[in-house]
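One chain shown below:
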Amino acid sequence: MEKDFAIIEQDESGNVVASYGQTIAEAAATKKETSTLAQRLIAVFLPAGFPVSVTDDYVGYQDQDSLQAFSSSIASLLTSRAVLEGFGVGDANASATSAMLLTILQDCVGRIATILFAYKLGPALEAECKMYRFMADIFNDSAMLLDCLSPKLPQTARIAILCLSGSLRALCGVAGGASKASLSVHFAKTGNVGELNAKDSSQETVISLLGMLAGSFVVSHISSGLSTWIVLVFLLGTHLATNYKAVRCVAMNTMNRQRTNILFTEFIYSKPGPISILSPKEVAKKERVLEKDGLLRHRGREVGFAEIGVPFSTLLKAMEEDASVSGKSQSEDAKIGRIRDLVETFKDENHILYPVSEPSKMHRFPTIYISLKTGATSRDQIKAWMHALFVACLFTNRGSTFTFQISAYKHEEVMEIISKSCTVLSSLFSKTINWESFQEKGWDLDTAHIETRSGYRISFVSKEELEKMDPDSGSTTPGSITIETVASEAAYLEVKKVV
């Protein structure tokens, strides 16, 4: 019987591993194994289906990550020797009990630091995973430097330094672990996060073994303090440089604060013609690894700060402080009028914002407070941040280069700027661009990475709606705010808040 077809067998990467004829006999005769030694090594250390199963930036990141792990392994041996000297190894007056107690103290301080750091910066670790991946190694290298310094210090200072180094290592563990998890989710195109993490551990194990072998040679040939410091500084410099290159290779497709700044300024102030939206790779080239929290930038220039998800009472209190400084009317009607203006301006939006003069920012730039309404989605958060950047640009361009005082503006002027910017932004999204334009460029709009701490949500109810509620219960819808409830000074600070 004449053969009129063949069966080709491929692996997950698309490589042909065998070809079969029409009959079983032919299959046994024609099967051709095409797996090479290199492909088998890839199967051991890289995810199944590589490179199809991972993003394009995976290889660049892993290359630099392997180099930084190698230098870190050698440096850790030098610091381990210093720690042992700090614990009393080689000292006839030292005891095993004191070394054990010092280890326990160091471990306890590190565990407490882990809890506090995870509580304080937990929500920001995923949104700013590139920054905290780099910060983790800064924490770790700082701990190594303190470890090498500890043997030369008096006993009391040595204990404090070793506890501080333990805390820094704990911070490294939290920041490094959380950021690596976020990066793994980004790299895994086919949902193979578990396997990708497992293979990453295999790679680190091999690199660490090679580093330990090289480190054993280095440690055995370096004994003086000066040579130890020279080699350590070189290794740590290499470690940070390669880690910096590693995170620079990553092109995240989620929109955090900094990436939103870059995207917005590029298409809102682009040349006349079709709006150009940058891709994640293009934004990654402009992205900074270390950035100030909440900073608003316009094409690299600082124009203000923003805080999103703030309690509505914070926004109202800031409004009244600026009103009192500028001599604006403090009557109850005037206060209610200012609130009504805000409510009316943002009635069709899922956020409310207002610019203030933040003393901690030394009044150089405006600080935009953003309150989110109940039901605000990730896209609403992105739009709110874009709006804050737009407002900051408008105020910075109008005001002095050196100082910013919101109290210098009349309330009507502030609301006019806010209202016009809101209209322009809404028109831009309804007529010129749409969210699908971002998705076509590869952006993930369903993951909220704008808020970096636990935020609040508000909703507004009218007097009629309030009267329909049970008057005896004294309660309203969770998070609801009525115009009447904020009519007095005391009520301003008692505004309902909802997480």
Remarks:
- Strands lie at 7-10, 16-20, 254-256, 295-298, 301-308, 351-356, 367-373, 444-449, 457-460, 480-481.
